[in-house]
Structure formats: C-alpha cells, structure tokens
Amino acid sequence: MLEVDHMLDRLTNWIKQNLLNRTRRLREEAFEIKHHIVEIEGESYFVAQAMFPDIPEILGVERAVYDGLTPWDRTAFANELRRKSDRLYLVIRKNDQLIGFIGASFDDRLKQAHITNVAVLPDFQNRGLGAFLIEAIIKKAQFIEYRTLTLEVRRSNHNAQALYLKIGFEKVGVKERYYFGDHEDAIDMSLDLSKWRGGYHGNK
C-alpha cells in the first residue's frame, strides 16, 4: 500500500510539474512583445514593452495623474522591470510621447495575474487607452491559460471602477486603509478569465 501511495505521489508531482512547465512556456511566449502600431477609436498609437529608459516618462505620467505624486518611485519600477519572468509592463506612445502604461504580475501556481499599475495622461483619458491596455493584459493571461485577473482601485475612483465593471471585473472585497499616505480603502476587483469574451471598444 505504501508503494502504491508513493507511486501516486510521484505521478501527481510529475503531472503538476509538467503543467507548470507548460504554463511557463506559454508565459514566455506571451511575454515576447513585438513593438507595433495599434488603432484605438480611430487614432494610431505605438505599443511596446516597457524598458529602463522609459522610467522617467512613466514617473511623469504618475505625477500628472496623481497630483504631482509618484506612488511608485524610480527604484520600484526598476525592480519590477528586472523581474522579466513574472512581470510584464507595457507603454503606449503618441508621436513619441509616452502617454500611458500598465504593469502586471503573473503567478503560475495560482494561475492568476494581477494588475499592479495602470495610468494614462489626463489629456488622453476617455479615448479607450486604459481599456486597451487592460485588455492587452487580459489576452496575455488568457493565452497563458490563467484563471483570474485581479486589481485594486481606490474607493473614491468611481470612473476607474465603472471602466473595470464595464470590462467585466467584479467587486469582491475591500482592503481597509490600503493606500500609503492617505490610507484610503481599496476595492478588490476580479475578472474570471474563462468567461471573458468581449472587447470594451471592439479593438481586437
């Protein structure tokens, strides 16, 4: 009986390891980003994977969005960009100006991705860019065969919450006093990737 149990354990471990290896291969393929031109609501933009030289402009977007503050500093972004195996950051440009970015972490064992940052310059908001960036991460996570995509949003940020709900996220909880500085609550939101079929603005 012990020998049978041992064989079952070995078989179970082998299956788990092979599934993880498959997920890892899919993630590596998904992270091979080709710089390309995209069209969003009739306008052309350039999308690329974030690189270290982009960090000053990313911080500039943060300052513009968060009233001169940078919730994440240069070191934090640099540390994220170094983690090439489980982090993906994308930037979007218009006429060579970095106007928005998104970042996400990927957990193969939980089969879950988490949006860590997303921001678009105020002058370029309400043009479908935030939705495009979020959908880019959704499609990557679906390709890797993940189950869920999660994020946090400030309780007071009703516009962002409305966008996330429209994309398909659901409110699943609250992190009290989550944000550094003002200690505002965060709303936890989650997207079931197995059910997501749509595009917010129809740009595939």
UniProtKB/TrEMBL annotation:
<feature type="domain" description="N-acetyltransferase">
    <location>
        <begin position="45"/>
        <end position="194"/>
    </location>
</feature>
<dbReference type="InterPro" id="IPR016181">
    <property type="entry name" value="Acyl_CoA_acyltransferase"/>
</dbReference>
<dbReference type="InterPro" id="IPR000182">
    <property type="entry name" value="GNAT_dom"/>
</dbReference>
<dbReference type="InterPro" id="IPR050832">
    <property type="entry name" value="Bact_Acetyltransf"/>
</dbReference>
<keyword id="KW-0012">Acyltransferase</keyword>
<protein>
    <submittedName>
        <fullName>Acetyltransferase</fullName>
    </submittedName>
</protein>
<keyword id="KW-0808">Transferase</keyword>
<dbReference type="Pfam" id="PF00583">
    <property type="entry name" value="Acetyltransf_1"/>
</dbReference>
<dbReference type="InterPro" id="IPR006464">
    <property type="entry name" value="AcTrfase_RimI/Ard1"/>
</dbReference>
<dbReference type="GO" id="GO:0008080">
    <property type="term" value="F:N-acetyltransferase activity"/>
</dbReference>
